[in-house]
Amino acid sequence: MAQISPEDRFNLEVVKLLLKIAWVDNEVDEREKQTIVGAARSWNVPEPELKQLLTRLEQGAPLPEPDLALLRPRADDVMTAARALVLSDGKVKKEESALLKQLAASLA
């Protein structure tokens, strides 16, 4: 993998987390997917990494765990992105709500 900046690494880890949140109910709504892809592109997440993550998602392969230690210093940014994703499909499922609570505790 090419050398990526600390900011790009952070953004990639946020995208991993968003994919995990989107998949918590075992389905990724098209609006959720578009939200994640749009965010990833606006954050300049390297396209090869993004494509690899989306391919794994589409194939039902396990997604890599986000690096919470890397995300923790910017927990507010992470939670803002996570909440926006959960709301993107217009419905908050109990699995999503539970994962948000768990995430908030993990980042504290």
Describe the structure.
The protein is mainly α and 108 residues long. It has one domain (6-107). 70% of the residues lie in helices and 0% in strands. Helix 1 (6-23) packs parallel to helix 3, helix 1 (6-23) runs parallel beside helix 5 and helix 5 runs antiparallel to helix 6. The protein is globular. 28% of the residues are buried.
Short summary of the structure?
This protein is mainly α and 108 residues long.
Name the descriptors.
108 residues, single chain, mainly alpha, 0% strand, globular
Specify the biggest β-sheet. Answer: none
Over all CA atoms, what is the radius of gyration? 13 Å
| Helix count, DSSP H or I runs of 4 or more residues | 6
Instruction: Report the average pLDDT across residues.
Output: 91
H-E string? HHHHHH
Helix content: over 70%
Total of domains:
1
Q: Pick out the low-confidence regions.
A: none
Shape from CA axes?
A: globular
Structural class designation: mainly alpha
Gap from first CA to last CA: 30 Å
Number of strands: 0
